Amino acid sequence: MEFVKGDPRLQFISMLQSDTIWNKKHDKFQLKQTVFKTFPENQHLSAAITSNDSLIVKKADFSTGMMSGAILLGFNTNGIEASKAKIKHTSIIVSTLVLLFGILIGLWLARTISIPVLALRDAARKVGEGDLNQKIKRVQKNEIGQLEKAFNKMIDDLEKTTNALNEKNVALSNTNDTLNHTMIELKNTHAQLIQSEKMASLGELTAGIAHEIQNPLNFVNNFSEVSMELIEEVKEERSKKQEERDEILEVELLEDISRNLAKITHHGKRADAIVKGMLQHSRTTSSEKEPTDINGLADEYLRLAYHGLRAKDKSFNATLNTDFDKTIGKVNMVPQDIGRVVLNLITNAFYAVDERKKQGCEPFEPTLTLTTRKKGDTIVISVKDNGNGIPQSILDKIFQPFFTTKPTGQGTGLGLSLAYDIIAAHEGRLSVETKEGEGTEFHIELPV
Ligand SMILES: Nc1ncnc2c1ncn2[C@@H]1O[C@H](COP(=O)(O)OP(=O)(O)OP(=O)(O)O)[C@@H](O)[C@H]1O
Ligand SMILES: [Mg+2]
Fold first, then answer.
1. Main subcellular localization, coarse class (predicted)?
2. Fewest beta carbons less than 10 Å away: which of 11, 53, 84, 300?
3. What's the rounded Cα separation, in Å, for the pair 39 and 72?
4. Residue 152: how many CB atoms within 10 A of its CB?
5. What is the mean pLDDT of the chain?
6. Three-state DSSP state, 73
7. How far is CA 111 from CA 24, 102, 123, 138, 377, in A?
8. Is the minimum distance from the CB of 398 to ligand 1 under 6 angstroms?
9. How many domains does the chain have?
């Protein structure tokens, strides 16, 4: 039993003896255990001892021929509690140390990574908002420091680029001013050119108009002369004696005079209309739309253009065909504007056929055909020639202002461009069909 002394954890060892106790009547018995022996011997314990906070009691029954009972082992738990308390303390100290270490690492990380990164983020946001005074002042020596250096360099570069851009903006704005100025000058020049184009076409017309006025004037002169002669005859008749006078002849002569005066008035009015037309053509302000006899207008400008050209160049000759749709009636338009378009198409056509004739390499009959047609809601005026046609290479340029193939000084190149604008202003369409070596046909489409 000495091993109990050798191990402080063992408090006691005890042997219990089981006895059978009969009741008084001796008909029932019960088992009773008593302490047989305990070591150390000074320990006094009861057979019913159980485990408590400071003691663990283990019991093992035994039975032999001599006796039966149980062995009790008592373990002292103080040592275990002490070890538990020690482990608890140690773990608290270790946890605190780990926590402190963690906090230190956290602070260090915050100081070297998070704070600079956040500062970089804020600076980058402000740079994004346009504030370029966002340099990082205390640059570190680690990777974050390299990032900060790169950031500072970026700000420098940005500043330089912004300054350069600002300078370019100033330069651009100056160029813009100059361009605006040039634009205004160009607009003025354009207006002047339009005016000179009008005057040029007026010049083209003048010869034709002179020819046109000459014709009614000849009638007026001839009928006046004839009327004077007739009046002389009437006077002569009247100076005769009453019985010799031929009253029937007198009446006939007076009727002739009257007819002649009507003709003089008619041709006088024709000359008047021609002069009025010329004045209208030279007017600079844009005019009002009015119901216009298209066929009359086309015919008038054809004759004016032809005689105008013939007056300048006696050798010029062309066959003129007209095919007018009589059902057209009057169409709302600015007559002098549409007249200018028709005139330009006709002069272009005459120029083209004349060019072809001057090449002289084939028997050639210059021909111009002027057609009017009513197609549904539109009327079409077509000017067709059998000149050389327009080469495909320049076809898309002919409506551009100042495009001309005429020798310098002979054309402004504004004719078709103005024609295009006028027709567009009438909500119509100007188109061209052409075949090289065969001729060209322009169509003016106008809404009714
Ligand atoms: N009927 C045509 N046949 C062949 N080429 C034509 C014809 N009409 C126009 N062109 C071509 O289109 C060009 C431009 O014509 P546009 O009427 O605009 O100017 P222009 O006749 O040259 O000059 P301007 O009308 O001022 O006298 C002409 O130079 C010519 O090359
Ligand atoms: Mg022209």
1. membrane
2. 53
3. 10
4. 16
5. 88
6. strand
7. 91, 14, 17, 12, 85
8. yes
9. 2
pLDDT tens-digit readout, 241-267 = 888 888 899 999 999 999 999 999 999
Q: Which residue has the higher pLDDT, 331 or 208?
A: 331
Residue 351 is part of which domain span? 290-448
**Which of the listed residues 76, 92, 115 is the one where a domain comes to its end?**
76
Contacts of range 122-126, beta carbons closer than 8 Å, 24 or more positions apart: 123/151, 124/151
The rounded Å distance from CA 201 to ligand 2 centre is 9
Tell me, yes or no, whether 199 lies in a domain: no
Q: Is the pLDDT of residue 204 over 70?
A: no
Look at the block and give the residue holding tokens 């001599």. Answer: 66
Question: Which of 342, 388, 395, 416 is the pocket-test mutation for ligand 1 (most atoms within 8 Å of CB)?
Answer: 416
By alpha-carbon position, which residue is closest to atom 11 of ligand 1? 398
- pTM above threshold 0.90: no
Ligand 1, from 393, 404, 433: best to mutate by most atoms within 8 Å of Cβ? Answer: 404
Beta-bridge partner residues of 38: 14
Residue type for 114, please? S
Cα 416 to middle of ligand 2, angstroms: 6
pLDDT confidence of residue 278: 64
Tell me, what CATH number does 421's domain have?
A: 3.30.565.10
For the record, the structure tokens of 41 come out as: 């011997």
